Amino acid sequence: HAQAAAGVAGVIKMVMAMRHGVLPRTLHVDEPTPHVDWSSGAVSLLTEAREWAVEDGRPRRAGVSSFGVSGTNAHVILEQVAEAGDVEGVEGSAEGGGPVVWAVSAVNAEALRGQAERLVSWVDERPGLRARDVGWSLVSSRAALAERAAVVGRDRDELLHGLRALASGGAGAGVVSGVAGAGKPVLVFPGQGSQWVGMAVDLLGASPVFTGRMAGCERALSAHVDWSLTGVLGDEVALGRVDVVQPVLWAVMVSLAALWESFGVVPGACGG
């Protein structure tokens, strides 16, 4: 099982279907379930692949759902991207009068000034570039390094003026710069399906931090369950019950987070 990455397979499949204009057949459906009245409504199974036609010029759209046994549900709505020739805009402007941000970054202040200078030359040599396209490319296709700056402008001239100020090391209206702080790690734990008989038993005997946090979790659970947290870790039958394995996994995750924190890995957030 792909666990946290399981849903992305459906997203990739749907993106490919949009790209090729083909609805792939539903896999592993030898016989539709009799519990659904397939003769009513507009929902049907794709027993065979078929063309995905575009009607009235509308883009293809689809929903991709991923449902976890733990109760975490995700739904993503995808829309076919417009062809480059279908996008209207005013060349050289901020398209519609709204502000545009050009973001640049580098490893240090000197490199940042050089980056701004090169960007000025590159844009100057291409008068047909749209301000929004440049802004989009800067934030979507380049690494975000520690030394950062953002130039805000309503049109091409304002943006270039700000870039030149940045390149010269001076201040300018609409120019903001700074150094990004080091981000904290985020701990993401898996859900049901990742358990195994005997999990966490070795840590209980080896780590006082882990043992102490598990004991705290056991006390918190004791008023709500009729089983022992540490007692079910080696019980295959008990770990097969949803009402047991999910609280057990929660306790193991909380205790692992405490263990990592004791090693100096202090997370900014935990999920799971």
From TrEMBL:
BP terms from Gene Ontology: fatty acid biosynthetic process
UniProt keyword Repeat, yes or no: no
InterPro entries in alphabetical order: Ac_transferase_dom_sf (IPR001227), Acyl_transferase_dom (IPR014043), Acyl_Trfase/lysoPLipase (IPR016035), Ketoacyl_synth_C (IPR014031), PKS_assoc (IPR032821), PKS_Beta-ketoAc_synthase_dom (IPR020841), PKS_NRPS_Biosynth_Enz (IPR050091), Thiolase-like (IPR016039)
Origin: domain of life: Bacteria
Keywords: Multifunctional enzyme, Transferase
GO MF terms, alphabetically ordered: fatty acid synthase activity
Keyword Kinase: no
Pfam families: Acyl_transf_1 (PF00698), KAsynt_C_assoc (PF16197), Ketoacyl-synt_C (PF02801)
Protein's UniProt name: Polyketide synthase
Domain Ketosynthase family 3 (KS3): 1-80
